[in-house]
Amino acid sequence: MSLPFCNVALPVPLRTTFTYAIPDALRDSVQPGSRVLVPFRNKSLVGVVVECVQQAPESTKIREISKVLDFLPALTPKLIELGHWIAGYYLAPVGEVFRAMLPPVTELRIERQIVLTDSGRAAADKEAAASRALNPQRHALLSQLRDKGGVMPFASAAKVGLDDAALQRLRRTGFIEIRESMLGRRAKTQRVIAWKSVAAVAEEAAQGDAFDAKTDRVKAALQARGPLPLAQLLRVAQVSRSVIERMLRDALLESWDERIDPAEDPFDAGYVPPAHELNAEQESALKLIRARFELGEFGVLLLHGVTGSGKTEVYMRAVQETLARGKTAIILVPEIALTLWIGRQCRAWFGARFEGVAVLHSALSDVERAREWWRVRNGEARVVVGTRSAIFAPLENLGLIIVDEEQESSYKQEETPRYHGRDVAIVRAKMENAAALLGSATPSLESYHHARSGKYELLTLASRVEQRALASVEIVDLREDFAKTHQTSPISAALHAGIQECLAQKMQALVLINRRGYSWSVLCRSCGASVQCENCSISMTHHKQRNRLECHYCGSLKPIPKQCPKCQSKYVYFFGEGSEHLEERLRKEFPGARIARLDRDTARTKRQYQETLGAFASGALDILVGTQMLAKGHDFQRVTLVGVVSADSSLSLPDFRAAERTFQLLTQVAGRAGRGELPGRVLIQTFYPEHYAIQDAVKQDYPAFYERETQFRRVMAYPPFTSLANVIVRDTDLEKAIRWSRQLSEYFSPHDGKGLRILGPAAAPIAKLKKEHRFQFLLKSPKRSLLAKVLSGAMSYLELKEIPETAVLVDMDPLSLM
Ligand code: ADP
Ligand code: ZN
Ligand code: ZN
What we know:
The protein is α/β, with parallel strands linked by helices.
C-alpha cells in the first residue's frame, strides 16, 4: 500500500509544499513525518514529508527523494495536523512552520535496538512454513530475537540479510518495535531509594515492632513522594546514610541505579522541592482541574492567582495527576531563566519516579536541543518544560498543557511563522483532547474575557500563601523629585534611601529598567539630529563597555561619534538610561554592595543565567539590576525591595496594549517583593502617576484594571472585541513598496465596511527596518472567519499581480502594531 509520491514541506518562504517521487528502495521508509533530504533547485534541502500521495501534479518535472533521515518519523500525525493549522491560521509558509517544529539537524550518535512484540513472539513460535505473512529470513530474525531474550542490536538484522525496508515492514505489521537511545551522554547514575512494599509494612506491623523515629521519617518521606534519589532522601528525612543502609538490609527499602538526566544543572544537587500541604484555595483549584481530567475531554482553565499565591504548587500536582493517568504534559514558561527553575522542580518531583523530564529552549546548543527533542520523541521523557517552541514537543498521549504567565508577549513569535504559543497550546490541547491550564497573576484581557464569558473555566487564588501580605507599592513622582533635587539620576532620592535601608537589613533588592545598553539615544545638541541606524528608522543604543553603538533591531554597529554626523558639532549628547548605565550608577552610589546585572547582554547562555540567578538566590549578591526578564516568576525569598526605574516609558508607545503591558509589568514586579517572612516594598518611579494603569498596579487590583481597560477596548474596537490582522508590505526599493501597497489597497478597498474595517496603507511606525521600507494595513473585524477569508483572498491576489509573497507579511492577532 506504499504510495509512489509524497508532498514535502521545505524551509523556503513559500506557501506551498513540493511533490517528490519516492524511489522503490525507500518506499517503506518514507512516511508522513519523516525528514528527508531532497534536491531543490541546485542544492539539497532537509524537509519533512507531510503526506504520501498516489499522484503527482502533471505540469512539473518530478524529482526523487535522495535520503530518509529518520527511522522513526520525526513528527507525529497530530503534529503534522497542528503544522497545517498554523500555516492556515497565520497565513505562514508551510515549510517555515514545519522548520520551526523540527529538531535541529545534527548528527546524533544513536543506538537502535530491535525489540520483539507479543505478536512477533507468537509468529516466531509458529513453524516457518505455517506462517504466510513471513518469508524465511524474517522468520529467522524473529526466532533469533526470541532466543536472545527479545532484544538485539539493530545492526544484527543485516547479518541475517534484512535491510531497513524489511524491518520497517516488520515494524508496521506489529511484530517488532525499534527502540532508540542516545549515545555519548555522560552516563552518570544516581542511587534511587524506594519504600519496599505494602506487604513489608504489614509484616512489620504484624510483628508489633514500632518503628523508631528515623525509620518513620524515611517511610513518611518515601510514601509521600515516591522513590527519591539518595542525596535528596537524606535531606528530606534528616537521617544519615547508615540509617538507609540498615533499612535496606532489613528489606524495608529497595534501591537501584538510575541514569541522571542530561539536562540536569549543577544546582540540582541536593535540591529539595517544597511539598506543602495545599491550602484551601489551592485545593479547590486542583479539584476543578481533576474534574476536567475525569471528563477526559478538552477544556481550557484559567488559573488567576495573585503573585505568591502558590500557582507552581498547583501546576506540579496537576502534572503529577496527569502522569498518574498514564499521560504526558508540557509546561510552557515565558523565559529561559524560568525553564531552569521549573525544570529543577519538575526533576525533583518527577525525575526519579517517571522516565524523566526534558527541557527545551533556545539557549541550548543544537546538539543538546536535538538530544532532548529525541528523548521526548522516543518516549524517554514524559514531561517537557520549555519556552515557546516547546509547544511542538513530540510527546504522545498528551494530557495537559500548562502555560505559565500566559499573558507574556514572549509567547508570540515575532518572525515567520508568527504564531502565539499560548493560542497554539490551546489548539493542540483541543486536537489531542487534553486540558489546557493557563496561569497568571495578570491574565491577558483576552483570556480573562473568555473566563468571564464562560468559554474558559476560572480558578482563583485570591491571597498569598500563609496569609502573607502583598508588597506595599509606592509611587515616586519624578516631577517632584526633580523639582527638589534639580538632578536627573535614574535613582531618585526615595529609591536611594530604600536601597540603603534594605542593604542595612542585609536583605536583597531588585532594580528594574526596561532597556539594555548604556543610553538609548545619541543626540546632537547643536542641530538636534539623533544618530539613527542606517538600516532602520530607529536610534542607536550606546554600549559603553563594548565602546560602540548598536541597533537593537538589526544588530548593526557603529563607532561612537566624536562629532555630529550631520553638522559636525562636537556637542554630542547621550541620553536615556539603560541597564548598563544603571548598574554603573548603583555601583557608584552603593560602593559596598555586591551588584550584578542580568539582561540579554550579560546572559547569552544558559550557564550565565544560572550563575547570576544562582548567585542571587544563594545570597552572594545584594542587588540585581536588569531588564524585565527579572520581573517574571522568580521566587527569591529574601527580596524586600523592588525598584522600577521608569514605569511609564512603555505607556507612551503608540500601541493599544500599552496600558495593559504597563499594568502587567508593574504587578509582576511587585510580586517579586516580600515573598519570604519579611514584608516587601516596591518603589515605582514615574512621570505620570495619575494614569490608571499605574494607579491600579499600585493597588494590585486586576479586576479594576480589567473593567477600565475593556471599556477602552470596546469603544475603540480592539481585542478582545475585535480580531486584528496587521499586514505589512515591504521592500528595500521604496518605489516597489509603494506600488505594491497601492495594488493591495485596490484589492482591500471593496471589502472595507462590509463587516470589516480596513485602515491604511500608512507608513508603519517603524518606517524602515533592516533596509526595508514598510507600509501597513490594519484589518479589524468582529468575525475572525471573515478576516481569514479576505486575507486568503489577498494571498491569491498577490499571485495574480505577481507581487512576491515575501514582500507581504501578515501578522494575525498582532501583539504590537509597531
Ligand atoms: P506564584 O507562582 O503564584 O507567584 P509560587 O508558586 O512561586 O507563587 O509560590 C510562592 C511560595 O509559596 C513558594 O515559596 C512556595 O514554595 C510556597 N507555597 C506554595 N504553596 C504553599 C502552601 N500551601 N503553603 C505554604 N507555602 C506554599
Ligand atoms: Zn548636529
Ligand atoms: Zn538597524
